Amino acid sequence: MSLLVAQGLSKAFGGVHAVEEVSFAVEPGAVVSIIGPNGAGKTTLLNLLCGIYRPSAGRILVEGRDLTGRPPHEFAAAGVARTFQNLQVFFNMTALENVMVGRHRHERRSLAAAMLRPPALAREERAARAEAAELMRFVGLADWLEAPADALPYGALKRLEIARALAARPKVLLLDEPAAGLNPVETQEVNALITRLAARGITVLLVEHNMRLVMGVSDRILVLDYGRKLAEGGAAEVRTDPRVIEAYLGAEEPADAV
Question: For the chain, what is the domain count?
């Protein structure tokens, strides 16, 4: 069974069709990239797949469960987590506390426990801190465990958001341009991180403009153009598809340039 399925998915804003009749399936443990020109509907598609937007038409299934039109917290409960193109970091917290926030769905909380602070609550907080620290180490932020979030460089903040999403223990992780604004060294760190995620069996759905990263980490690539699916396949198929070269990579750019 496919982990995530989109069937005829569409989203219109007034008379503008941002996503139109897009269908695809994501298998467990796969890395699937969504590429396309600016305005192709990539981020809108991610917003549909995590419940931020309600589709105008079509269906979304996670492990066979129909979540079409359901709110974001139900997508989260089903195992869908995401990061955002623009940083969504709590700069008034430490880096570690930011990651702990991502774990809240798995914690037992009540007003009485918060007021009385029984031993069980203290144990749970210690476990949350330990798990958050381990995730920070996993994404390469071991040196920033107790640092204020606003002290982290931009590239580290990108990986901090991934650590926070992982704290939700997702089955599928949606990454919206994780390499945007990064230098070549930071981009390579994100590349290596996605490879480690795949090795852990975490399913990744990636929106990204960096073609070198996309071609290196993807099992399959979905190409959007004007909100419609233009092509889908492996990296070798997509990079040599004349429609993709013309629409996204550039009609005069040789296919081996990426």
Answer: 2
Single residue among 169, 184, 200 that ends a domain in this structure: 169
Same domain, 155 and 234: no
CATH number at residue 240: 3.40.50.300
Burial 21-57 (b: 16+ CB within 10 A, else e): ebebbbeebbbbbbbbbeebbbbbbbbbbbbebebee
Q: What are phi and psi of 180, to 5 degrees?
A: -65, 130
Q: pLDDT grade, residue 85 (50/70/90)?
A: confident
Give the other-Cβ count within 10 Å of 169's Cβ.
Answer: 14
Whether residue 147 sits in one domain with residue 95: yes
Residue 5 in contact with residue 11, Cβ under 8 Å? no
Spatial distance between the Cα atoms of 190 and 173, rounded to a whole number of angstroms: 14
Kindly indicate the confidence band of residue 67, based on its pLDDT and cuts at 50, 70 and 90: very high
Name the percent of the chain lying above pLDDT 90: 75
Domain range for 112: 89-169
Taking residues 37-47, report their average pLDDT: 92
Decide: pTM greater than 0.85.
yes
The Cβ of residue 7 has, within 10 Å, a number of other Cβ atoms equal to: 17
